[in-house]
Amino acid sequence: MDLKDLLNKASTSLNGKPMAGLLFKKARINNGKGREVGDILGWDCIVRAEDGTCFSFYVAQSHIGMTKPVQIPCPLGIRIISSYKIDIEDAIKILNKKDCGDTFVDVELSWPLVPDCNEPYWHFRMTLGNEVFIGANSGTGGCHKFKELLNNTQKMEMTNTKINDINIKVGERTKVELEDNGGSTGYSWVIGHKPDSLWLIESYYIPPEDPIPGKPGTRVFTFYGAEKCQDSIQFIHVQLWNKESAEIIDCAVKIS
């Protein structure tokens, strides 16, 4: 469904309320991992009406239908998207030409309200911990590999975020939850060093229960202990176009 159709359907569901544009959309991915557009089941969307009110709803990728838009407080830190040229199918084709991994666990479209962003961006998180930004108009962008990120940034320990060490048995799962603004500020959580025996099987964002503008939600990473090991893992909070902003949390990992 293109943006014009999406906004028209939202308007129709709201008794003809005129829509100004899209603010944000996030993919729901089949089994939490995808390689092609067919792996995307649908989109969680936030749109803004011309009167300044905002609404959220889910729309199925296969045009099955959509849920009734529900009014929410408008998120801060993102611009209105009135049009874009690169759809998700073309964005995935561009993604597959980059040496950044071939399996994505998270896909978002937004336009962060920061000077360096002059167009909307597709944001892919990959299973390898890498991140890819692709301009939704220009098609340009790059792969931000976590190893390069670590080599090119000064490490600054985060003092306001604490994570318990990971201590699980082989075959067990565990979740790490981090405060996150859902990409609206341009910041993103990236996984740095990670032992191969600790598999990342899922990553998703939970909006705040009380959707107050500016209030952060939660980024959840789900891991699986595949083999015994004693190592560490790094979680990096960074604006990917400003690598000097990186803040890093180190956690011990023990799989017994």
TrEMBL record:
GO molecular function, one term: cysteine-type endopeptidase inhibitor activity
InterPro entries assigned: Chagasin-like_sf (IPR036331), Prot_inh_I42_chagasin (IPR018990)
The organism's place on the tree of life at top rank: Archaea
Domain Proteinase inhibitor I42 chagasin: 167-247
The entry's keywords: Protease inhibitor, Thiol protease inhibitor
This protein's name: Proteinase inhibitor I42 chagasin domain-containing protein
Organism encoding this protein: Methanosarcina mazei WWM610
